[in-house]
Structures are given as structure tokens and as C-alpha cells.
Amino acid sequence: MKKKAIAFSLAAMLASGVAIPTAVIAQPIETGYQEALDQFDQKAIRKIDVDRIYNHIATLSEAPRVAGTEVENRSVEYLKNEFESYGYDVEVQPFTYTGYTEPSRIDLHVPGMESELSPGNFTYGVSGDVTAGLIDAGIGSPADYERVNAEGKIAVVRRGEFSFAQKVINASEAGAAGVIIYNNSPGALNGTLGGHDDRYIPALSLSQAQGQALLEHLKANSGAEARIVVEGAETGEHTSHNVIATKHPTNKKKDTGEVIVIGSHMDSVPDAPGANDNASGTAVTLELARSMKNLPSDTEIRFASFGAEELGLIGSRHYVKELSEEEKDRIVANFNLDMVGSRDAGDLIVASVDGEPNIVTELTQKASKKLNGEPTTRGRSGSSDHVPFHEAGIPAALFIHSPLEPWYHTPQDTLDKISKEKLQDVAEIVAAAVYDRARFDNQNPKEKIREKSSVPKEAFFEQPIR
Ligand code: BES
Ligand code: ZN
């Protein structure tokens, strides 16, 4: 196995007559890094126990961990207890956000229309039961409502040019009682209004074909009516949590003042057990905290588990927003582990938001080259908790396997699809990369890391993650 072979020292391989993997000798390293693992790398990865990671995933993925629910709260307790059992001080940071409960029933009935309509809901749409005459309101702009009288009517509006929310608000301000927005290209329409607004009126979506059929029906039957029903939809304040365990520098006198944040999100989407997304990253974060607990270090390491990522990076945004300017300056790197264990996904990628190298990608490529003989491929990606760090000017990158597995955000994202080998690989790479920076005798000023890059330019290609 490639990886294990490279974990041996070169000397041991030569002595035992084992063939040296070509990856080690085929890539001359110009900058003088050792090819084999040094004592610090060994120390950083020695205590990683992949069975512990796997067992955390088993526990966390028993049920979907949707933000703001009882299951997410149980995960918060689990993480807090685990971190504390390793000897850490743990902060549980609550935050609130506006959450949306999907309607329990939606219905669109048009008396006299022969074809079946299959409407969709808009996230943040409001409940209501409206029966009224239909009008064709074009694109739904204020100019459209000068042309037609929408008072008390249900406006039929085409998608495009401006947001769904604005279309609902325009209709509402023109006095309409309901809105139907149909697609402007083939296929169903599943949209979001982006957030709550007091002006909303009940709104449903239709595919392009069904929207056009509805307008045909209206043309042929002037005064045609419809009934829109949206039941049980609710927008309200919800609470979720971040959990942060801190490893302080082990010798106060040598404290560099620098902080590294290793983070991952704990929540999942509804109906998905989220074994890979993201019990995997959460479990690796836990095991890194445990295995690195007693490492001598001159850098603070924070192990963070963020809530409500799937609702729009809410937990990590809250965490970064609450940092003082002084703390932001001290954070030199954010390692974001999100979907790091799927047997059915591709290779590991370390992706920054802008696709440019930074301290995280450099440390990662240096560590992975030593561990595996070749550096982890770099890529570019947003869509996860490293984004708020990047936006605050903190070097950050996402660890993910690409291409994604087919189970992403489905009920099939379960424990049986998890690869221990992938978990072990990511855990070792991140541990070695972080410890390269955090270990005691690392007196290199920050800039040196960039100068000393041993990673050939060709190792970068822009990797489409999905
Ligand atoms: N685990 C994914 C992250 C991800 C990153 C997936 C890159 C695919 C490619 C994450 O949990 C997620 O699903 N993110 C959302 C966006 C987020 C802002 C709600 C997504 O990508 O749809
Ligand atoms: Zn995720």
C-alpha cells in the first residue's frame, strides 16, 4: 500500500531491500524538505485512532442532525462531553437565526382546468387559503401592475429579471391576495424567498409547462378562479450552537500568540443521516483534539464544531462575527473539514475560496507530500464554513473529496459508505500540517512558509467539486 510504504523511513526501506516507491524519488525536492516523516510528524499522527473516528460517525449519524432540533442539541452535548473527557475547556456558543418550517400541505386548484397542477412551495413563503380570480401579471414588475388591476386577485407571474421575493412583494403592494410564479425554462421550480418579509402573501410555484397551460386556461376563460392553500408554514426564531475546545500553548513563555482553528459543521440536511456530510469532519475534529491533546506547542489550537451550516454557514458566520479584531489578527489558519470520509467520492482536495495558495494549502501540501509521496491537489470552493474566515482575511481552506459521492444530501448518506482509509488519510494530513505550524521549535516567521513552498506549480489545477 502506497501510503504505509512511504511512512517508513528511507533508510529502513534501503536496509530491508524494499523497493522505494517511485513517487518518493521521482520528484526531486528543491527546497531541502525531508522526504520521510520527521519526529514532529510522527508525534502528530501517532495517537490517531481511526476506529474512534468511525465510532463517532456511527453515533452522530443515527438520525439527521438538522439545525435547531433536539438531535442537533444531543450532538452538541455529545461533542461537549467528548472534548471535556479529553481534558479541554469547552465553550458552547449559542446563536439565534430565523428558521423556516416547511408547510405540511400545499394545494393549487383551478376549477374547470383539465390538466393536473403540481405546485411547489417557496422557502419563507407564508401560510394562507385564498380563492380569487386569476390575472396575468407578466414578469410581475410595478409597470405590469399599472397595466392590470391586481386588487384581491391571484397574480400569475413569470420567473426572471428580479428575485422571487421581489415578485411576491410587488404583487402584495399592488393589492393581490396570492401569487403563482412559473418557471421561465423547462423543469420544476423550487425557490426561496431568501428570508421573511411582513408583506408576503401566499405564493406557489409551477413548472414552465404548467404555468403556460394555466395562462392558456385564463385566456380561454376570462374571470377564471383558483384556490391556493399553504398550511403549516412558519418562520420563527431558532437557536443553534457552536462548540469550541481550546488547546493552549503548552509553555506560556514561548506562546507565539498565533491561533489555528480546525473546524467542521455538525448539522445535516433534513432526511439525511449525514454520515459523510458532516459527521465525518466532526468526528475527525474530535479525534484530532484527543490525539493532539498533550503535544508540546507554541500555538493555540481551537477545535470548533459549527451549527446551522446547511442553512447558510450561520454558525461559522456567527463565530467569526463575534471575534474581536485582535483575535482575528491572531488566527493564522482555518482548516475546514467537510465531507472527508466517503468511500464513493474521489480524491482529497484542499480548496481555498479564491483558488489561490495560502498557509493552509501550503502546510497541507507539504505534509501530504511527506505522508503520501504526492501533495494533495489544490482546488477552489466556497459553500462551507471556511468562507466566513476567508472573508475576514484569515487564510482558510476546505478539505473534501472530489467528485462528490452520489449520496450527498440524501437519506443514503450512511455509515456503510464511510471509508476508514480516507478518514485516516485526512486526519494524518491535517494533524501533520497543523503541527508543522504549532510545534514548539518552529521559529519561522509566517512569510517563510510561503517562500519555502516545495509544491510544484503543476500540482494545482482548478478542480470542479461538483
Ligand atoms: N458539505 C457541503 C459542502 C460542499 C462544498 C458541497 C463544496 C459541495 C461542494 C455543505 O454542507 C453544503 O451542502 N453547502 C451548501 C451551501 C451552504 C451555503 C448552505 C451547498 O453547497 O449547497
Ligand atoms: Zn457539509
From TrEMBL:
Q: Which UniProt keywords apply?
A: Aminopeptidase, Hydrolase, Protease, Signal
Query: In what residue span(s) does the Peptidase M28 domain sit?
Result: 242-433
Where are stretches of biased composition, namely Basic and acidic residues? Answer: 442-455
In its UniProt entry, the species of origin is given as Bhargavaea cecembensis
Q: Where is this region: Disordered?
A: 442-466
Protease is among the record's keywords = yes
- This chain belongs to which protein, by name? Aminopeptidase
Q: Does the keyword Hydrolase apply?
A: yes
Q: Name one Pfam family in it.
A: PA
Traced from the root, the source organism's taxonomic lineage reads:
Bacteria, Bacillati, Bacillota, Bacilli, Bacillales
Signal sequence bounds: 1-26
Q: Which GO terms describe its molecular function?
A: aminopeptidase activity
* Segments forming domain PA: 139-214
